[in-house]
Amino acid sequence: MQNFKFKKSFYNAMSEMTDRQAGEFIKGVCEYVFNGKPFHTNDKYLKGVYLYVKRELDVAAMNSANGRKGGLVTTEKNKTAAPEGVHVIAGEIIAENPLAGMINYLKRENEKQAETGGKVLHENRK
Hints:
The chain has 126 residues and is mainly alpha-helical. The chain has two domains: 8-79; 87-116, no CATH class. Helix content is 63%, strand content 5%. The longest helix is centred in the middle third of the chain and has 36 residues, at 44-79. The chain is rod-shaped.
């Protein structure tokens, strides 16, 4: 992890510490975040606060990693191009022949509108 958010709840817990405890705590948290080394102390209050902060930091790192996975999948899906000869109109894949595809698209739209009592955009002619 390159950086981390220092939440107000961390500060609130530190406000009860002496300067010596606060220094030890900050050094321990930074050592964990930047070098992956767990914080060891004999002070029970520092241990408890550290466990709370460690859990918050671990959850934030996990959420960040999961968010990147979802973003990468979406980006990859958006990068895929339609095969040659296939055309997309209004979010639908239509036939290789764009004119035939457009006619089929309009027919489907007319059927939808006829079912709902809306206006018909295009009349089928034979």
